[in-house]
Structures are given as C-alpha cells and as structure tokens.
Amino acid sequence: MNPMTRLLIATAAFLVAHYVSSTPLRALLVRLLGTNGYIVLYSSAAVATLVAMVWAYLRAPFIGLWHIPALRYAPLVIMPVALFLVAAGIMTRNPTAVGQERWLHENAPARGILRVTRHPVMWGIALWAAAHMLARGDAASVMFFGAFLVLALSGTVLIDRRKQATVGESWRHFAAATSNLPFAAIAGGRNRFHAGEIGWPAPAIALAAYAVLIWLHPVLFGARPY
Predict the structure, then answer these.
(1) Average pLDDT over residues 37-48
(2) How far is CA 104 from the centre of its chain?
C-alpha cells in the first residue's frame, strides 16, 4: 500500500474513533456495553488508532508543500503558550471535562485559566499542532498535525453542544461568563483576568517541559527545534 494512503486511512480511523462520542452511536454502545465497557472500548480504539497514525506518519515520504524558513521557528515561539494552556488546564477544575459537571454548582466555577478559555487543553493541543504543521510544510505533516488541529478545535464546539444539551441552565450561566475563543469573554466584558488565580505552578511546569522538550527533541523526534 502507498505510504500516504496508509497515513490517510490511519488518520481517518483516528478521527472517526474520537468523533464517535459525539454521535448517537455512543448512546447505543453505552446501552450495550455499559459505561465502563464503553470507556474501555473508546480508550482502546483511541490508543490503537493513534499508534497506527504515528507509525504511518514516521514512514511517510516527504512531499514539500511550502518552504518558508521563518516558519521553522514557529514551535519555538508557540510551544511555551501551548504547554502553559495544557498545564493550567489539567490543574484546573473544569466543568467541561468528562464527569466534572458538579463544579458548575460552585459559587465561581469560571476561575483561573477558565477566565481565558473554557477549553485550555484543547487550545493547547491546537496550538501545538498548528505550530508543527507550519514548521514542517509537507503533505504528511499537514495530514498528521492537521488531524489534531481539526479534532481539538471541533472538539471545543462538540463539547459545548453536548454540555448544553445534557446539563441545562447551570451550563448556560457558565458559558455566558466564559468563552471558547481565548480572551473573547474578557474582551467582551463578561469576565476579568486574574493571574493570581492561576498561580506559579502551571507556568513553571510549562517552562520546565519546554526546556526538556528542546533538549530531548533531537533524540525523541530526530529533528532539532532551532
């Protein structure tokens, strides 16, 4: 099989496996397998398709689409922000996460990084994917990193729709005080930024991860980031 065709199939399978949770098929699978059974199946499919996609990407030929030397440094500039969003998002109680709707009943559920965006992890992944896609500039990278970019950005919309349909009024209050697009709620006067609520651990972890990735990038991925 052509290596690019193999990557295309693996990428499509990766996306399909993740979009199942936003289709009526999810409810059917939960009824048939139970919640725990569905989670095991979903997690297994997600990991298997990710491994297949990575394997196919590493074996795909380089087919250049653009060559803009300055874009090579996009990850160096963007990755600190992406890592910060992921670190802060993981360390924050977020009502958008699976099974975390109970935090909507707190007096101030939109705190810390959630004042910036209610989907910090998703936006961190999107920035990581966009930066590497721009830096590489080849067909296989557009397919590989583009899949993560599309999944992350569409995931923010799909999560919002699912929460609005299942949670109700408490979600609408939370959504009104926050925004999907970073800083949109702050710019619109619906929220205010409070750096103290984020604290220092998330930026510190992000900078440490950034330094480690720069150091190990040639060993792990076979390419210098600078």
Answers:
(1) 88
(2) 22
Quick one: how many helices (H) and strands (E) in the chain? 9, 0
Residue 111: strand, helix, or coil? coil
99-144 pLDDT, tens digit each: 666 666 666 678 889 999 999 999 999 999 999 999 999 999 999 9
* Residue-wise pLDDT tens digits, 69-108: 999 999 999 999 999 999 999 998 888 876 666 666 666 6
The pTM of the full predicted model, rounded to 2 decimals, is 0.90
Residue 214 phi/psi, 5-degree rounding, is: -60, -40
Residue type, 115: R
Cα dist from 201 to 12, 27, 87, 176, 215, whole Å: 37, 38, 9, 28, 21
Could you tell me the residue ranges of all domains in the chain? 1-61, 66-221
Range list of H helices, 59-193: 74-90, 120-136, 139-166, 169-177, 184-187
